[in-house]
Design goal:
This protein is an alpha+beta fold and 315 residues long. It has 5 helices and 8 strands, in the order βββββααααβββα.
Length: 315
């Protein structure tokens, strides 16, 4: 600290202070965020009547031209003078100086190469599944799942420099929507695959239904042929049939049991709409080749427009 007493009675006090400050920052527009950092100087003993702080009229704020903000650039600053009022605490009013620094994050090739460009490539590669034949389910699913896992790793690396906050940043919106596009590609394949094999599944169900009906008919005829026959185990037996209800009554020494075949009558077969399912599946792929890129381009236009307008508004 340097103290100098002038001939006119003024006292010059020069003191070098190193300040490690903490500032609450807003990362809603990250990585295009703009920050305002306040450095406040205030007397803690002498009230406003005894001490008044003021900025110099000539060059009140000097910054070393070789000083470098880590990831930011200072585009302007404000020098303010205020009076802090602590009357409610019984301590009075005090003079205060505020240096407000406005910082803008350097959005350069680092974010483009490490975050945005890779994610755009992942989304575009996921569209390659639309050109793979629907029968190759393994290849399409493997491609989409690999891209999803890669995007999760990329998003974690992109967020590692961000503190934990309770709101969503612009980068979170970008990564989330891009991931949704990749997942939508996987859902599209599942839909096309379901439609493509719908006819085969319908034929399989129909064959299974006919086979079950044939087995029930064979079982019913077998019991019908045993009417009036005696068995060694029970000594006597009899079957009474009712043509209306298709019910067989079996009498024996041990008692009576009933075999009901109300469901013997064949059910009316449900008409399955499977005509053109294969062509419909390929049509889904053809439309997806146009719809997905168009929607992704529209999302990019809205995203960069909103983020750019909000960043300029803050400036």
């Amino acid at each position: 600290m340097l103290t100098r007493v002038q001939s006119d009675g003024r006292i010059l006090v020069s003191k070098r202070i190193i300040i490690n400050g903490i500032s609450q920052m807003d990362f809603r527009l990250y990585p295009l965020d703009v920050q305002a950092i306040d450095f406040e100087i205030e007397s803690n003993e002498l009230s406003y009547n005894n001490l008044q702080l003021a900025w110099k009229e000539i060059e009140p704020f000097n910054m070393n031209e070789h000083f470098h903000w880590n990831g930011y650039e200072m585009y302007r600053y404000e020098l303010l003078s205020e009076v802090a009022n602590y009357s409610q605490l019984g301590t009075g009013t005090f003079s205060k100086l505020i240096a407000r620094l406005h910082l803008r994050r350097n959005f350069g090739w680092q974010f483009i190469i490490e975050v945005y460009a890779p994610i755009v490539l992942y989304v575009i590669i996921s569209w390659a599944a639309f050109w793979i034949d629907i029968k190759e389910s393994g290849a399409r699913i493997s491609l989409c799942m690999t891209i999803i896992l890669t995007m999760v790793t990329t998003s974690q690396n992109a967020r590692k420099d961000l503190p934990v906050v309770d709101y969503i940043s612009a980068l979170d919106v970008w990564i989330t929507v891009s991931t949704v596009f990749v997942i939508a590609s996987l859902v599209e394949h599942m839909t096309a695959n379901y439609v493509f094999f719908r006819e085969k599944r319908a034929a399989s169900k129909l064959n299974k239904r006919k086979r079950s009906l044939w087995q029930r008919e064979t079982y019913a005829k077998k019991f019908g042929n045993l009417k009036g026959r005696a068995t060694p185990e029970t000594g006597s037996s009899d079957f009474i049939t009712d043509n209306k209800t298709k019910t067989f009554f079996y009498f024996s020494i041990s008692g009576c049991c009933c075999l009901n075949f109300h469901t013997y009558k064949p059910k009316k077969e449900r008409k399955l709409q499977v005509d053109g399912s294969v062509e419909l599946a390929y049509e889904i792929d053809r439309k997806s080749r146009i719809a997905f890129p168009s929607l992704f381009l529209a999302f990019n236009a809205v995203y960069w427009l909103v983020v750019g307008v909000e960043a300029r508004r803050v400036l």
